[in-house]
Amino acid sequence: MSVGLTCKPFLLWFMSFMLAAIAVSAVALRGVSSSVYVYYPETQDVAFLPPPIVFSHPPSVGGGYDVDLADRLALVFTDFEAYPLPGWSSRGGSWSLDSGYKGYGLRGYDTNRGGIRGEASHYYLTAPISGYTRYYVAVKVKLVDGAGDCGISLLNSAANNFYEASVSASSMFISRFDHPETFTLLNSTSVSLAVGKWYILLLEYVRAEGHNTFTLKVYDSSGTELKTLRASDSKFQPYYAGVLVDEETVIFDDFAFSMGDPRVIRVIGAPSGASFSVYDDLGTLVASSAAEGGVAELPVLTDIVVGRGWNGRLYSPELSINRTFSSIIGGDLYEVYGTAYDRLNIVCGPRMCSANITVDLSGLAGTYDCNVLNISVADGYTYYASLMLAYLEGSPSLNLSIASSLGSELQPLRIVDGSVIPDEVSEVEVAGVGSYIRLRCPPTTSGTVYLYLVYRAAYGPAGVVVAYPIMLMLQR
Ligand SMILES: [Ca+2]
Ligand SMILES: [Ca+2]
Q1: Å from CA of 308 to ligand 1 middle
Q2: CATH number, position 90
């Protein structure tokens, strides 16, 4: 409300009280108009001032669906596009960049630490992994000489004892090395690998009751599994993870340390009939799959760190989704959400100070996330705005927030199964055009939410609070 009054202090207080009373009654009674009359004592006139904040329909943009990264299982990943890497350290060996599977790879040459059988050269992550009891380590390898072996190393905290999950040209094995010279073979099997070709190693580690269990799989570069090998041991709990090379020269690429299976990325919330493709930063197709039962599983085993580790793209022609992410990594979970404005029916009140919004969620497979109401400030001032719940019908689940054109976003008003999560709902400053109310809700929700946009002037003595009623009906 414009409060450009030039009256005496008592009258000013009285006007504030009256305006606040209107606001309070608007809070208490749904449908009360928030129009405000300003009283000019000098002329005894009553004049209507246009409301400074008005609602309007949000601009209709977007293709109806979008997708976001919802979870990432890989804690560390690299496509070895640089050397040295921050957060990595070497023990023995000669390490450098070379041509990789895509872009560069890490070339490792074993300096054969003293010629002890089973000793090896390591390049490993300096962040400890001992806090995890189940994880996957994936890496791509290419033998250059064929004389020795290479693979995944899990070292102790002194980095001198280690477990090794490795391949050579003729075998794969899991072993333990104890400083200074004890080599223990835990399990092995024959497998034929060609020198100069790429293979993928995937190690699953599980620790339970002081026991380590290792499962090593080797795949060719097309993703065909060649063999699986298992072993268990309880000598020590691994403290560092990395790669190793022993009496061999090798090139590594596509390394991931992951809390879950890195062989697929999953897209959830996908409507039936939708298909998805993953492209790398070089424009090459890595994987594609159709959604079934709301989920698409894209096999990215052949390139777990998609492309060179940056600018991966997720594409769905049916949903008009074409999103580039800073990286796409095996184990990622993506969620499709609906953004369709044609699901919205918005009716604003005669002075654009109230709104009835109906959202049609029928047939939507994923989350709905949409700007449902524009907020424009017409008088050039800045206001503090927040959302206040009046009451609910049904037991809807949703988040509502105000995104300000000034850059801040209100902590959402969260309702889960009809209960309000008692978050502190803060105020945001709104000014000019481009602020809006944003709704995010699961497709299964329904019910009606009665709430208020509450605002006060950011200038002068605070005290005039105005509330605009909003009814939000979620239909399925
Ligand atoms: Ca690479
Ligand atoms: Ca890669």
Answers
A1: 5
A2: 2.60.120.560
Domain identity same for 30 and 149: no
What pLDDT does 113 receive? 59
Q: In whole numbers, what is the pLDDT of the chain averaged over residues?
A: 87
| 472, β-bridge pairs | 357, 449
Structure tokens, 124: 């490993």
**What's this model's pTM, rounded to 2 decimal places?**
0.74
Distance 268 CA to ligand 2 centre (A): 24
In this structure, are strands 333-338 and 367-377 parallel, antiparallel, or unpaired?
A: parallel
Distance 201 CA to ligand 1 centre (A): 15
Q: How far apart are CA 274 and CA 286, in angstroms?
A: 18
Task: Give Cβ neighbours of residue 407 (< 8 Å, ≥ 6 apart).
Answer: none
The domain that holds 454 is classified in CATH as 2.60.40
Between β-strands 447-457 and 465-475, what pairing exists: parallel, antiparallel or unpaired? Answer: antiparallel
307 C-alpha to center of ligand 1: Å?
7
pLDDT digits (tens, 9 = 90+) for 340-357: 877 889 999 988 999 999
Which phi and psi angles does 381 have, rounded to 5°? Answer: -95, 170
How many Å lie between the centroid of ligand 2 and the Cα of residue 80?
9
Range of the domain at 276: 65-338
* Residues measured by CB to lie within 5 Å of ligand 1, the ion: 79-80, 100, 102-103, 253
Query: Which ligand sits nearest to residue 280's alpha carbon?
Result: 2
Helices (H) and strands (E) in the chain, counts: 1, 37
| Domain termination residue (choose one: 295, 318, 338) | 338
